[in-house]
């Protein structure tokens, strides 16, 4: 089957059957966009995202997504691979000419909020079952991290996740950023079998001056053993800084804030501020990719 063409606004897009499910040229600088909705996933894909980190509740730092969301995104990816219309919401698009990438799909495994990342047996059983369920969608990667109550790597529970996920690779997420002794911690993460580390340099934002020092040190010491992926506060204004430092993949939400209608009677359905959600902006993704390539 040949390439199928579509136009989105003023853009021409090819739904290419030649795209590899595992992404584009490995030498290209890559962008992983974290999303928590189908709308954001489609926006990220049209923007040119190389990978999607699929979560729920980005306002909570990202939790395990629903099976429905993962299923819908898997369908979108399969439609791109097979040259079909990617989603019914896109039915108004007509024909035309630009390659639409097939993104990798990476699934967050984090069953609850909290920055302790210290999980009991009930929580671990839940997350192991989540992995079993999501593997049916042929995803590309899981994202996980677990610590002890003394903020050390929980090697026992991390090993369980690595073994259950196999042969799917696993990223160790920003639980690293609350650990002590970062160099020794990365060594443990590598020895456990993780092949990517998401980090803000143990600061609130990866662009913090002290965070940059740590990220540079991690690159110099470990980049031949594990991918170092900066995330948190990575945006259009500073993306080139991380690329010039030697990072090959960046993590960003490329988001805008969407405010929700307030409920009557001042009722709130939860403890947190639920008056807004994050939505990935296609144009921000495009701009990020341009900054990373120039």
What does this protein structure show overall?
This protein has helices at about 40-45, 65-80, 120-135, 155-165, 180-190, 210-220, 240-245, 280-294, and strands at about 5-10, 10-15, 30-35, 50-55, 105-110, 140-145, 170, 195-200, 225-230, 250, 255-260, 275-280. By secondary structure, it is of the alpha/beta class. Helix 1 (about 40-45) packs parallel to helix 8 and helix 3 runs parallel beside helix 4. The longest helix is centred in the N-terminal third of the chain and has 15 residues, at about 65-80. It starts with a strand and ends with a helix.
Which radius of gyration do the C-alpha atoms yield? Answer: 19 Å
Sequence stretches where pLDDT stays below 50 over 5 or more residues? 1-7, 9-25, 92-97
Helix content: 25-40%
Output the strand order for the largest sheet. 9-8-7-6-5-4-3-10
Provide mean pLDDT, rounded: 88
Count the strands?
Answer: 12
Give the H and E element order: EEEHEHEHEHEHEHEHEEEH
Oligomer: single chain
Shape: globular
Protein name: Copper homeostasis protein cutC homolog
InterPro entries: CutC-like (IPR005627), CutC-like_dom_sf (IPR036822)
Organism: Bombyx mori
Family: Belongs to the CutC family.
Descriptors for this entry?
single chain; 294 residues; alpha/beta; eight-stranded parallel sheet; globular; disordered N terminus
Briefly say what this structure is:
It holds the Pfam family CutC. With 294 residues, this protein is of the alpha/beta class. It has 8 helices and 12 strands.
